[in-house]
Structure formats: C-alpha cells, structure tokens
From TrEMBL:
Major localization class: membrane
RagB/SusD domain segment(s): 323-625
Protein name: RagB/SusD family nutrient uptake outer membrane protein
Alphabetical keyword list: Cell outer membrane, Membrane, Signal
Length: 625
C-alpha cells in the first residue's frame, strides 16, 4: 500500500458512498447503504485502500479549529467569530452547533472502521495479500480505539458500538457505557492492533501509520487520563448515571491507577524504539538546544515521533499564517503572558526566583552570545540588542515557542521579506515583530485583526517558509512524541513513589535537551517532595508541550481549569500609545488583564448535541448541561 498521503483520492463510486454515509441524520446511523458494502467497492485494492484512507482523514489536530489551544491559559484568539471565543465567555450549550463535528466525525469513522474490517477480506487475494489484509484490519482497530479515545477525552463515557447496526436495531438499546468500560475497550483495540503491527515502521512508504509503539503510547495517554483527579473518584460525577441507575464514573479514588499509568508509559520507553531528537541527529557537530527543539517539529519522521500523520497541503500554510503578524499573517495564535512567564531562565530558575537574574526594566545592549541557530540559519535566534530585558537569558524553548515584540519574524527568509514586516524606520533587514501600538503589527494599523496579547505562538514554524509569498514548507503533524511519554512517566511515578530516581531522571532528559541543568542542581529542596515535584513536572509539561493541544487537557484532568490562575489571562500593554518610541516604549512591557474567562464545572466535559439526545432516548446528557 502506498504512503498515507495528504490528499485522499477516492474513486467516484466510493466517494458517493462515503458522502451518503456522512450525511446521515444521527451518529447511530443504521440506514442501509448498498454502495458502502457493495462488492464493487471491495473488488479492487485501490478502492479498499481509499476506504481506509478515508477513516484516517477524520483525525483532527489542535490547529484545525484552535479549540484546545485557545481554551487554555496558553493562548487567545484575535478573531471574534472563532468558536473558542464563545467558550471563553460561556456562550455555548447543547444546542450549539460549534463542535458537533467532534462527536459526529468520530462515530462516522468508527462506523467505517467496522465496515472496513467486515468487508476487507472480500478483496481478491490476487489484488491484496493476506498479510496486508491482516495489517489493514489492525490499522482499522487502532483507528477505532483512537476515535473512542478522543470521544472519552472530550465527552466522557461514550456509547460503545461493537459492529455495524442492523436495520431493525432499537436506539434505546444503546445507552452510554461506563468510563472504565470505555477505557477497557480502547485498550483492547490497541492490544489487538499492536499484535499485528511492527514496533516501528522501517519503510518510508508506511510513514503516517500507527505502529505497536503508537498503540502503547495511546494506552499511556488513556491510563494517565484515568488516574488523574477528573476521573479518579471525582465527587462531581457522583450522580452521573444512565437512566437505569448505572454509574458512569468511578466513584472511589484508586491510587493504583497511577501505578498503571506509570507502567503504561514505561512500556513505551522499554521498547527502546525512540529517542529525543537533537540537532546532532542532523549532522551538526555542536549541540544547540534551540535547533534541537525547533527542528524536532520540522524534521519529518524523526526518531522522537511516535505518531504523526500527513495532513492536507494547506495545514502548515494555515498554521504559519495564523502564527505570523500582520501584514503577511493573520496573527490568530496569540500566546499569553501566562505561558511566557512559565518559561524558565536558561540557568533553570523561574522568573519568580529573585536569584534567577530576571529583569523587567530596560533593554539589552548586545546580542545573545549563545548564537543559537546561527550554524543553520546564519542569524542569531536568541535575543538581540534592543530587546526588553524581559526576554533576555530565557531558556531555548522560549525562543522557539514565542514571537515577542522586537523578535525577528521566522518565516521570512530574505532581508527584503523581513523588511516587509517593518515600518520605514525599522527596515534594517531583521524584520522585528512590531506589536507596539503604532507598529506595523499594532492596533493603529490593524484595529480588527491585530494580535491581542503582544505575542504569537511560534512553535512549528519553519524559517524556510515565506509568509509574505504565502509559501510554507510541508511537514506531517506530530500527534505523540517521546518527550510526552517521559513526562507521563514522571508524573505518574511521582504519585506512587516520589522518591523513585526515575522521576528526575526522565524529567531531566527533557530539561537537558532544552539546555537546562538538572532540576536537583537548581532546586535541591524539591527532590522527593511529591507536591513540589508535581508542580515542576506540570510546569515542564506546560513549556515542553506548549501549543500542541496538551495544556487544555492537562488542566482538565487535573481539575485546574476552574482555578483563578487558569482563568485570568494576561497580555502586554498593547493599547498604550507609544508616542513613536516603538520598541523602546517601556510601558508596553507592563502586564494587563486581557480576560477573566468564564468557567462552570460542567465545562469539564463537552455537551452532547441535543439533537442526538432527543433521537436516542437511552442517551443521557453530561452533568450540568
């Protein structure tokens, strides 16, 4: 079979069948569709593979609609009509159509996975080998588990279908399964799939497919979710029951679930199939923490990646447009002051630590002596002369993740391209982002579309792209990588045995790739203290996984989304007139409250669309909705 490609080319017959399926009136569709199961569809390898590719096509990413990014404390969105803006003010309910695609698309994919598994053996042996049929069935089972996992994370307990529905099926026979039943089913799908998949794929033609390692990584994610406070004896769900009284949520805290989560993460690690990416893997002779972290996302199919998928040719272009300021970009992915402040100094200390060297007054006189990125880009990617001292001597991940006022714009490869983003007085070939009031990316020139925080998310942006010319370098989207598994392991193990040496060992591997000293070297008093280690693990996760969709779900599972610190979103003082002082206007660098976001505990779960509740009388709505 050919590589899972970014465009899903389906024959006319199959396209019609899929189209009819996706237009079904309910997620529990049982409408007969002769085309879907017609022998004509399964007569050729091409049609069968196109059908499987269609199931893959429902896989979503955090950058598809910005929900998991803009709903957490790491970012905001400058465009009023984007759905997540309604979440932030509490303007959504079971009648809202904003996010129906999550539920509907997942079940469409699940239905199709059953159809595929039930019919793939019809393809003639001469057209498709038995070996490939076994592999493709494994992929379909993985995808079924994947989509149930996404439903569980977004909506809680789902309705577990075990096959395609017959014509005479009664919807009332399909209430929601319990949380644990969903966990067990997802794990069973991953185990079945893993048995017929390689540990990793060696041939590039199979890149984009799940492997045994991917299946184990999903089990790690699910186990961490099940162990965390949201679903481990949460009293908020005490009355979350089906109409027959069946409890849908675990009512008692089970400390052993943390051990299960630690074991699940360690199972991935023990495969010895993955490694943290560094610039040395690209042939450089000198370790560069900036390039190591930046190019992790720009080096296709590298050895840190556990699962990534091809996306349509437009996703990376759209992502970079949303991550770039005006006039070439649309400045949509506004990083918050919250996530900026979470990043560490390069000595490994927090900015709150008086001994860290952090300053908020004045401007630096010289360029960063580290010269991060210079060996590859020919320019310094750390701080530069004239930057606010707020941004001086920060860790390498800060310069990868954040575009701040005065930082050169990344996807602008020539001096002429960079000058395009600069006011006349600043056309020096550096292309520094002008977020200040009168700047080219500021409020005066872009009142409706300007960045709203004084920052943009810059992770996963390529210096080889050119926003001015609407040209972006292709790359697959990374869904799971090894650093996340290390953090899963450290977090889970800390809840079981905070003195276990593996906690700091694996946490430090992530820190050291970022160029930071070991945690125990910087803060020895943290060692063995469960509460303090937990704070550090979650902070490292906030930084390492920034803008990858993880922060939103971490705040949910840890019951931290309703905390005042998670709801109060801060920015720079972008609306203050700089009086032509530009980058050197000191008042710009004062924190302002952008928004105190609305929160209700019912928002720990998405509501199920009321239309589906009405059509399936066995289906109960999520608590509070």
């Amino acid at each position: 079979m050919k590589q899972i490609t970014p465009k899903y080319i389906v024959s006319g017959l199959l396209a019609l069948a899929l189209c009819q399926n996706m237009q079904s009136c309910t997620y529990l569709d049982k409408k007969p569709d002769n085309l879907l199961t017609s022998d004509m569809v399964w007569e050729t390898r091409a049609n069968a593979e196109s059908y499987l590719n269609q199931i893959y096509s429902y896989i979503e990413t955090p950058v598809d609609d910005f929900t998991t990014l803009g709903a957490s404390d790491e970012s905001s969105c400058n465009i009023p009509v984007v759905n997540v803006r309604q979440m932030a003010v509490g303007n959504w309910n079971p009648q809202s159509m904003y996010w129906q695609h999550y539920w509907n698309n997942a079940y469409a994919a699940i239905r199709q996975s059953f159809v595929f598994e039930e019919n793939i053996d019809k393809v003639p042996e001469g057209a498709l080998s038995t070996e490939l049929k076994v592999q493709y069935k494994a992929e379909a089972r993985f995808l079924r588990g994947w989509y149930y996992w996404k439903l569980l994370r977004q909506y809680g307990p789902a309705v577990l279908l075990k096959g395609t529905l017959g014509l005479n099926e009664d919807f009332n026979k399909y209430p929601r399964n319990s949380f644990q039943e969903c966990v067990d089913y997802i794990n069973s799908m991953m185990d079945l799939a893993a048995a017929d998949l390689p540990v990793v794929w060696s041939a590039s033609s199979n890149y984009g497919r799940p492997s045994k390692g991917t299946c184990l990584a999903i089990k790690s994610q699910v186990a961490l979710w099940a162990a965390s406070p949201l679903w481990n004896g949460n009293p908020r769900f005490a009355n979350f029951k089906n109409k027959d009284g069946k409890a849908l949520a675990p009512l008692q805290n089970d400390a052993n679930k943390w051990q299960l989560a630690a074991d699940a993460a360690k199972a991935v690690i023990d495969l010895n199939a993955y490694k943290l990416f560094t610039n040395l893997d690209e042939g450089d002779s000198k370790f560069d923490p900036y390039l190591s972290f930046r190019n992790l996302f720009l080096t296709n199919w590298n050895n840190e990646i556990i699962f990534s998928t091809h996306k349509a040719d437009t996703w990376h272009w759209g992502h970079e447009k949303r991550s770039a300021p005006e006039p070439g970009g649309i400045a949509m992915m506004n990083a918050t002051q919250n996530v900026v402040d979470a990043h560490l100094m390069r000595n490994g200390k927090t900015i709150e630590d008086p001994s860290s060297g952090y300053r908020e007054d004045g401007f630096v006189a010289t360029d960063d002596p580290a010269d991060w990125g210079k060996s590859r880009d020919g320019v310094n990617r750390g701080y530069i002369a004239g930057n606010s001292n707020m941004y001086v001597n920060r860790e390498a991940r800060f310069y990868v993740n954040i575009l701040y006022n005065g930082k050169p714009i990344l996807p602008a490869p020539t001096a002429d391209d960079r000058n395009f983003f600069s006011s006349d007085a600043n056309k020096d070939g550096r292309g520094r982002a002008e977020f200040y009031y009168s700047g080219k990316a500021g409020l005066v020139q872009n009142s409706n579309s300007a960045d709203k925080t004084g920052y943009l998310a810059q992770k996963n942006v390529s210096p080889a792209s050119n926003i001015r010319q609407d040209r972006a370098v292709y790359r697959p989207y990374i869904h799971i990588r090894l650093a996340e598994i290390y953090l899963n392991y450290a977090e889970s193990l800390n809840e079981v045995n905070p003195s276990h040496p593996d906690i700091l060992s694996y946490l430090n591997l992530v820190r050291q790739r970022a160029g930071l000293p070991k945690l125990e070297t910087v803060y020895p008093q943290v060692v063995g203290n469960k509460d303090e280690q937990r704070k550090w693990i979650l902070r490292e996760r906030q930084i390492e996984m920034a803008f990858e969709g993880d922060r939103y779900f971490t705040l949910l599972r840890r019951l931290m989304m309703g905390n005042p610190a998670s709801r109060a979103i801060y920015r720079m003082n972008i609306a203050s007139n700089d009086n032509n002082q530009g980058f050197f206007y000191q008042d710009f660098y004062k924190r302002n409250l952008l928004q105190n976001r609305y929160w209700d505990d019912k928002m720990y779960l998405f509501p199920i669309l009321q239309d589906d509740i009405d059509k399936n009388t066995a289906l109960v709505q999520n608590p509070g909705w």
